Amino acid sequence: MSASPSSPSSLKSLVRRVLRGLNRPAAAVLLESENLLVHTPGPGAVWPRGSRQAVAWYVVGPAGDVVDIELVTMNGIQARTEAVLATGIQTHHTGATVTVPDLAPGRYLVLVTSASGGLDAYSQPVTVTA
């Protein structure tokens, strides 16, 4: 019999996964009651245009929201959406496969963001290639 998403054993498993991620210096963040942590793509990811790529996250706290996945560039502290990769994904699914659009080669961040604005998380930089 498998554990339900809110059972003590599945919550312990989630906490262990999040703590493993946080033990890596690049992923060290302070988690609050509701948080999202993008773990895929990881450091050094290279995404060729037109390829299918995994985006995955951990969620801590209630997972009732839906998220969108975007490729963004940063101008100082301002994020600029360059492409919307997916919309309306249930947060508790903790991942999706996306197709890399025909963007200019360069460095981007993957933003996983909730419609309510309550959950937002950025990936490590991703290099999009031709």
Short description:
With 130 residues, the protein is mostly beta strands. The protein is built from one helix and nine strands.
How would you describe the overall organization of this protein?
The protein is mostly beta strands. It is built from 1 helix and 9 strands, in the order H-E-E-E-E-E-E-E-E-E. Strands 2, 4, 5, 7, 8 and 9 form a 6-stranded mixed β-sheet that branches. It is globular, with a radius of gyration of 15 Å.
Keywords:
Immunoglobulin-like, mainly beta, disordered N terminus, 130 residues, 9 strands, single chain, six-stranded mixed sheet
Give the secondary structure arrangement, pairings included:
Blueprint: H1 8-22, E1 35-40, E2 45-48, E3 52-60, E4 66-75, E5 78-90, E6 95-99, E7 106-114, E8 120-122, E9 126-129
Parallel strand pairs: 2-9
Antiparallel strand pairs: 1-3, 3-6, 4-5, 4-7, 7-8, 7-9
How many β-strand runs? 9
Q: Helix tally?
A: 1
Secondary-structure-based class equals mainly beta
CATH fold description: Immunoglobulin-like
**The first-level CATH class name:** Mainly Beta
In percent, how helical is the residue content? 10-25%
Using the CA coordinates, give the radius of gyration: 15 Å
Using the 3D structure, state the CATH architecture.
Answer: Sandwich
Any low-confidence stretches, pLDDT <50, length ≥5? 1-6
Q: Name the CATH homologous superfamily.
A: Immunoglobulins
Instruction: Note the overall shape.
Output: globular
The number of domains is 1
